[in-house]
Amino acid sequence: MAGADAAEAKAALRHRLLAARAALSGEQRARDSAAVCARLIALPELRGARAVLAYAAFGSEIDLDAFLVQLLAREVGVFLPWVDGQGLGIARISDLTADLAPGWRGVREPRGLRAARPDRLDAIVVPGVGFDAAGGRLGYGGGHFDRLIADLRPGTPVVGVAHDVQLVDAVPLEPHDRRADVVVTPTSILRPT
Fold first, then answer.
1. pLDDT tens digit sequence for 129-142
2. Could you report how far apart the first and last alpha carbons of the chain are, in Å?
3. Are 109 and 103 spatial neighbours (Cβ–Cβ below 8 Å)?
4. What is the model's pTM?
5. How far is CA 24 from CA 18, 31, 85, 128, 129, in A?
6. Distance, CA of 58 to CA of 42 (rounded, Å)
7. Which residues pair with 63 in a beta bridge?
8. Which residues are CB-contacts of 74 (< 8 A; sequence separation ≥ 6)?
């Protein structure tokens, strides 16, 4: 899909999925987040990783804080992004409270830390508005994570995380869109073939 048709299809799907995610109760979002974090910590694609990029949850996204705390306790390098114009900068953090401050759109971002290179990461865990079983990822529309994924070392696993209500039959994709290698929800782990 390309051009205006893809943009319209993405916008409509984004609107529907954000509404479905926002309609989840706080209790359901907490249960979903706990289940996803438990799946991530045991995920083979992340098991031997020494440098993992994830994100600090915003709004009704899957909250990865419990997963990040476990990685930090295991002395895995934890990296988080910040919005840097049209792209994302990344930095290694050591404390989820001390190293983060509200940034772009209120998202918690690393502050005052040295920028790191994405080609040094062993794996990346990305949010999304929607995913499909083929790894198609619908983001928020800014293309930030798509550009970051393009800068990863070839073969670096990209793990998408979402609530079950965010899974769809097909995400409309354009040539610049990047797929996830694995999609983790509270009830499933999807590995596109």
1. 999 999 999 998 88
2. 21
3. yes
4. 0.93
5. 10, 11, 31, 16, 14
6. 24
7. none
8. none
